[in-house]
Amino acid sequence: MPDNPNTWIQALNQLPAEVGGALMAIFIAVLRVIYDKEETQPMRVILESLICGALSLTISYAIIALGLNINWAIFAGGTIGYFGSATVRVFALKVVRAKIGGNNK
């Protein structure tokens, strides 16, 4: 199996879209943190990628609940991995504050 890249692609295609989205978030988050060169400590890379993967998995279930096509989970995973957990958190807080009408920090 390790010698044939097509086998790896087939194996990845067999995974549920939620798992694919989480893996995409983890992979892109690792690359982004290393590319940014701001904090490349191994623990920072691991934690950021796991947080992005968990956020992506959570969003996957929101996608299912909203009745959207589950393949959006992979897009969501890539987006979350690219922007990072801090940006997603800031965006989520803005949305929640707008919905409840609070302007407090």
Care to give the gist of this entry?
This protein is an all-alpha fold and 105 residues long. It has helices at 5-13, 17-36, 42-65, 72-83, 85-100. The chain has one domain.
Whole-Å distance between the termini?
52 Å
As for the number of domains, it is 1
Q: What is the percent of helical residues? A: over 70%
Strand content: under 5%
Structural class: mainly alpha
Largest sheet: none
Average pLDDT rating: 87
Spatial extent as radius of gyration: 16 Å
Low-confidence stretches: none
N-to-C SSE string, H for helix and E for strand: HHHHH
Total number of strands: 0
What would you call the shape? flat
By DSSP (H or I, 4+ residues per run), the number of helices equals: 5
What does this 3D model show about the protein?
There is one protein chain. The chain is an all-alpha fold and 105 residues long. It has one domain. 77% of the residues lie in helices and 0% in strands. It has five helices and no strands. It has helices spanning 5-13, 17-36, 42-65, 72-83, 85-100. The longest helix has 24 residues, at 42-65. The mean pLDDT is 87.
Overview features:
mainly alpha, 105 residues, 77% helix, flat
Write the layout of secondary structure elements.
Blueprint: H1 5-13, H2 17-36, H3 42-65, H4 72-83, H5 85-100
Helix pairs in contact: 2-3, 2-4, 3-4
